[in-house]
Every structure is written in structure tokens, then in C-alpha cells.
Amino acid sequence: MKITILTLFPEVFEGFFSTSIPLLAKEKGLLDVNIINFRDYTTDKHHKCDDEPYGGGAGMVLKPEPLFKALKSIDATSKRVIYPTPSGKLFNQSIAKELSNEKELVFIAGHYEGLDQRVIDSFVTDELSIGDYVLSSGETAILVMVDAIYRLIDGVISPESLVEESFNDSLLEYPQYTRPQEYEGMRVPEVLLSGNHKQINDWRYKKRLEKTIKNRIDLMSKNIN
Ligand code: ADE
User: Fold this and answer.
1) How many angstroms is it from 91 CA to the middle of ligand 1?
2) How far is CA 163 from CA 44, 155, 166, in A?
3) How many CB atoms lie within 10 A of CB 78?
4) Of 43, 92, 112, 184, which one has the fewest beta carbons inside 10 Å?
5) Of 57, 117, 124, 131, nearest in space to 87 by CA
6) Residue 137 backbone dihedrals phi, psi, to 5 degrees
7) What is the DSSP string of 87-154?
């Protein structure tokens, strides 16, 4: 998959894409990342990317010209273009899964009061929110979405790791333990040491139910409907 990110702050993405699994995915040729600073597409002396909103009001709006030029340079009208915004549709695991099947994704990082609507009308295919709160920049929302998406690309992580994850079947994950068997007086549950896979699976299923009832009962009612 190719991921193109249009941003005024390319350095935000440097650490993420140069460490751990994203780096491995790039090295394996499964992920290609293109970060574009759309300030490079300004033509005025001061490289201005924002301006006051027509009609008045607080804050600044990202100007259409640099974004149009940057988006045209990558032929964005033929691509899936995602604009993270608190007024978008709520992003979730099934949207992440759907997007992970695309060959290419383009993200636009908004700032201030957002983008000139003409950019959205001309290029954006998906307006997505990562939750009911307001971030100060689109970059962090892009990192969250990209992290949820790229790991679902075939070959990035082992299929077994994805099977029993939270949200795959409307249940949250079971608790995990590793060595040592006892730490500060707390023992690993005996069943996990038993080697009995049927008992281990039953215990894990019970824990998933308990956790979902405690933290996210809404997920279970979604399953019933
Ligand atoms: N930009 C600012 N807040 C956001 C949110 N909640 N989701 C996506 N993008 C955002």
C-alpha cells in the first residue's frame, strides 16, 4: 500500500515510520510512505497556507491553492482521499479493515479551523473522526488511523495475532501474562500453566465476556441486534 500524507508538519511522522513494525513493513515492500509538505506548493513570498474565514469568526482556514496544487500533483481525484475531522463519520475497526484493502490512501492534515470547503468538495472521499473530542491538529488523528490500517495489510503481522483481537467479534481481548509465574505476590492463573488448551480457551472466552460486560457492554448489544 502507498500512503501519501499532506501536512505542514512532516517531522511529526518521522519517528513513527522509522521504527518498529512500520519500518519493517516498508523494508518488506508492503508499505510505501510519501510525506508532502503542502507549503512547498505556495507561490507567494510568505508561503502563506492559511487565511481568515469569510463571514467572520475565530481562527484561520487552510487556503485552497497550495492544497489543490499538491493534490493535483499526485493525481488525487483518482484516489481515496481521507480528511480527518471531528465532524467526520466515526472511524472504527471495520473501516480500518476496508481501507487496508486499498492500493493507495491519501491523508490531508487539517489545522486551525479546517480546510476551505472547496478542497473537501473537489478531492475528499472520506471525512473521518477518531472520536468525540477535538484535537489541535489532524496529524495525530492520521497517525491513529494509519496505525490501525497498515497493520491489517496482508503480511505486515502474523494472521494469528489478528484473530482474537478486540473488536473482531464484538468482544474485547482476554488478559495476558508472561514470566515470572509470581510477581510481588501475584500468581499467573493456574489454568494458563496447565497446558490444557480446551480449559485455556474456555478461561479466555470467560475473561473476554467479563471484560466486555465491564468496559463496553454496548459492543455486546450491537451483536444481538
Ligand atoms: N481533528 C481534530 N479533532 C479530530 C478528531 N476527533 N478526529 C479526527 N480528526 C480530528
Assistant:
1) 10
2) 52, 14, 9
3) 8
4) 184
5) 131
6) -150, 155
7) EEEEP-HHHHHHHHT-SEEEEE--BTT-B-HHHHHHH-SEEEESSSS--SBHHHHHHHHHHHHHTTST
Q: Distances from the Cα of 198 to the Cαs of 30, 66, 170, 194, 195, in angstroms?
A: 36, 59, 21, 10, 9
Question: Quick check: CB of 81 below 6 Å from ligand 1?
Answer: no
Q: How many whole angstroms separate alpha carbon 220 and alpha carbon 214?
A: 11
Pocket test for ligand 1, best of 83, 126, 127, 130 (most atoms within 8 A of CB): 130
Mutate to test the pocket of ligand 1, among 92, 126, 135, 147 (most ligand atoms within 8 A of CB): 135
The pTM (predicted TM-score) of the whole model is 0.94
SS3 label, residue 86: strand
The answer to whether the CB of 63 falls within 8 A of the CB of 48 is yes
Ligand 1 pocket check for 140: Cβ under 6 Å = no
∠ CA(187), CA(191), CA(193), 5° rounding? 70
